[in-house]
Design a protein that fits this description.
The first copy, chain A, is α+β, with helices and mostly antiparallel strands and about 200 residues long. Chain A is built from 7 helices and 4 strands, in the order βαβαββααααα. The first copy, chain A, folds into 2 domains: about 70 residues, Glutaredoxin, CATH 3.40.30; about 100 residues, Up-down Bundle (Glutathione S-transferase Yfyf (Class Pi), Chain A, domain 2). In chain A, about 45% of the residues are buried.
């Protein structure tokens, strides 16, 4: 069975549990309390030197880190990842964009809003860049049902994880109508599960 | 022929030109002056909404962005990317790590050092995180010749791009002996080219 080490409330961890569920792959969730430093324990660092959740342990005992690399590994050969090389590369393009231009802004703003003192003044850059990311997604979705090839792929799973909770980071989602319709489409996919609330 | 839109001195652009060269794929380099806003021109944004270099245009006219997604696309089916799924995922793991934990620290510090006023005081976090990234690489290379499977892959190309110029960002590389040997090994790979100096 797959072992998933993650933190409830983390979009990066949620996206892996969502894909595992939609692939009907049974897994055991190990809760890691990052605020208590559990991802920096000797035991955790022995599994993954980077000390970040999520990590996936395969039934064979191999450990993978980086949420979007895990998504790619699990999705390979399934309907969630196109076989055609250019389409596959476009999925990766969106996943790299998510980790560089979306998550460090939207997820980090949400983290400080929800788990910090709630004051985003020192994070004005992240808020502005987060809105840029939402605007770019909204423009792309003006003539696309999903991010790649008009079908639901891990590009959508990767982007859904923190977009659907962006409002918790103080982002006003009202102007992004295409994003709202896409969030709704993603949430209606077979086997969809909600993100577990933070513990 | 491939068309590569990039900025001389940018590691993200260099990594794509390095792989194209090592794959013996002819390409035309289009210089984009990001400091003059050329990646935000209407023409550029029409090709890629994200407005970032590099972008690759295939001989068929398809456009890809995100340097590491481009590396993956070009390397597919070659010796630079393992076929075995777990190894392939480990390559992606390092490439995602590079874009999240390495580039935003090391490349951004270098950018402010070389193209800014040279004062890294406001970027102390990025400097500290950059050293963490170097330490992690050094530990991994203590018992690995290359990042994945003890062979030269796009994981090495991705990480080489900004590591080999980290000293330009003020990073003291002396303590990272394994990184130094690996940089040397990478630079001795067949078809290696140097990064073009910034214009």
């Amino acid at each position: 069975m797959y072992q998933l080490y993650g933190t409830s409330g983390s979009g990066n961890c949620y996206k892996v549990s969502l894909l595992l569920t939609q692939l009907y792959l049974p897994f055991h969730w190990h809760e890691v309390d990052i605020l208590k430093g559990e991802s920096r324990s000797d035991l955790f660092l022995k599994k993954s030197r980077a000390g970040k959740v999520p990590i996936l342990e395969t039934p064979e005992g191999e450990v993978l880190s980086e949420s979007n690399a895990i998504l790619f590994y699990l999705a390979k050969g399934s309907d969630f990842l196109p076989l055609e090389p250019l389409q596959e590369a476009r999925v990766l393009q969106w996943l790299f964009w998510e980790q560089y231009s979306h998550e460090p802004n939207i997820a980090v703003a949400r983290f400080h809003k929800v788990w910090g003192d709630g004051d985003l003044t020192p994070f004005a850059d992240k808020v502005a860049n987060g809105y840029d990311a939402l605007a770019l997604m909204n423009a792309h979705l003006a003539d696309n049902l999903f991010f790649v090839g008009n079908r639901y792929t891990i590009a959508d799973i990767g982007l859904y994880a923190y977009t659907h909770v962006a409002h918790e980071g103080g982002f006003d989602m009202k102007p992004y109508k295409n994003v709202a319709s896409w969030l709704e489409r993603v949430s209606r996919q077979p086997g969809h599960i909600k993100m577990a609330a933070a513990k």
